[in-house]
Amino acid sequence: MAEEPRVFTVSPWGYRILLPGLIGSFFPPRLIAPGFEWMARGSLIAASGLLFVYLRVRGARRRAAILAAAAVLATPPVSAVFANPFLVEPFALALLLFALIAIEGGATPWVVALSLAALSLSKEIWVLLLPVIFLREAPEGAKAAGLRTLGMAGPAIWIGLLMRGMWIPQGGSQRPGTDYLATLGSMGSSVAVFAPQFLLGGLSIVALVALYRPGARDYARRHVFTIAPLLVLPLFAAAYTGEGAATSFFADDVRRLLIYVLPFVAALAVFLDPGHDDQTEQLWGSPILQRLAIAFTVTLMLVPLGLDRYSRIDLSTSRDGPYVLGFVRETLKTGRKLSRGETVVFDPTQRKFAWGVSPPNELSKLRFFLRSGFGPQAHYGVDDIRMRATSATLIAPVLEARALNLTLTVDARESAWITVLAAGERIGEVLVGPQAVKATFEIPATNLRRGDNPIELRCEKAPTALPRLLGLELRQPLASR
């Protein structure tokens, strides 16, 4: 994402553009990978300082706030983020704390709106802060509180709607349905694995003990609609049912995602301090800050307009990071070559990459153009490319919806007809057999779109004939150059 932050990699709900956009804008390409680790460490440092401020806003004494911030840094969720620094958790945690300080520190509506807008570009948990805003505004009446909450959430809602408007989904693509019974069963069988994660290194026990204090119980009541979802959501996020795979449970995801509940657990724990003041402090009020908040909020609201309306196939069901990275890189590289009038040749004898076997710097040899029907994980293949199902899909990425010539070189164990379809319409067919056949098909511009274009190959005898793809070429017809 940091290499091409303007191009969607997943649908808008899961597209966390802010951190990759910042890294892609301020770091040179060779420093993007280490830049994520630097940002993770810097974000955790910022988050610890913001947590100290938040606890002070909530009435904690300086010593208690320092101890709580140090304890949070020693919890398993914080250590878990370093296992994969490419995730947004440290950065989003800092933004979450900024939002909490703004909400509970008496910030103006524009400052709160800015914090929610920034968080919405990093993590979807911003919606869980709306009950905190509403309950804080509740003394003015339910209607007034609802309107004020909606007003502060307005920029974040606008960003979400605008991102949805910029997204061009793949027509006819269907995500596998969620098997909720299998998900619950996966959770149940993994209780012994993930249950200890909720101890948060013992900090949860301290927070539970602190509930004997009336102030702690009042804090828990005011934040229960935020804390409860943050405790439950990691379980559903860790239960994976994508790409038709059997449901499995990723306990490490539970530990990592529990990082978002740490500010609330720490806020409860500091109530054990006998000198804790239940009154919150007010930190905001500068006119300059108000104007800056307005300017930054408006800027963030315009960010989605800079997104590229490249129609990306659904990659959200894959947990295979190298494949997603290689696919995104190579599709855009191929599209740019085609737009320059170059002929793109995919030679299976030269494109061989197997994750864990091939050197990582050879990811460009990934057979990204194989989508389905060529066997499991055909993109990681190093052997012959054979059509295993009666329907297989190739990917033709283009940046301009112009006519393309698709050239296939194919043989098969026995004679069989292969039909080529684009956008569901028949483009042509070819008879293949033991002797290699080279056939060119012109795909009309009306059957293409800017994005990843699925090209379907149909062969009723594929399970026995096993057509073998010996070469694939994409080029612009001479008339369109």
Secondary structure blueprint with pairings:
Blueprint: H1 18-26, H2 32-57, H3 62-73, H4 76-80, H5 89-104, H6 109-120, H7 130-137, H8 142-166, H9 180-189, H10 191-194, H11 203-210, H12 214-238, E1 239-240, E2 248-249, H13 251-257, H14 262-269, H15 287-302, H16 321-339, E3 344-346, E4 370-372, E5 385-386, E6 391-398, E7 404-411, E8 416-422, E9 425-432, E10 437-443, E11 451-458, H17 462-465, E12 468-475
Antiparallel strand pairs: 1-2, 3-12, 4-6, 5-12, 6-11, 7-10, 7-12, 8-9, 8-11
Helix pairs in contact: 2-3, 2-5, 3-14, 5-6, 6-8, 6-15, 7-8, 7-12, 8-15, 11-14, 12-13, 12-14
Structure description:
With 481 residues, the chain is α+β, with helices and mostly antiparallel strands. The chain has 2 domains: 12-306, no CATH class; 321-480, Sandwich (Jelly Rolls), CATH 2.60.120.260. Helices cover 44% and strands 14% of the residues. The chain has 17 helices and 12 strands. The protein has helices at 18-26, 32-57, 62-73, 76-80, 89-104, 109-120, 130-137, 142-166, 180-189, 191-194, 203-210, 214-238, 251-257, 262-269, 287-302, 321-339, 462-465; strands at residues 239-240, 248-249, 344-346, 370-372, 385-386, 391-398, 404-411, 416-422, 425-432, 437-443, 451-458, 468-475. The strands form 3 sheets. Strands 3, 5, 7, 10 and 12 form a 5-stranded antiparallel beta sheet that branches. β1 and β2 form a beta hairpin. α6 (109-120) packs parallel to α15 (287-302) and α12 (214-238) packs antiparallel against α13. The longest helix is centred in the N-terminal third of the chain and has 26 residues, at 32-57. The chain is elongated. 38% of the residues are buried.
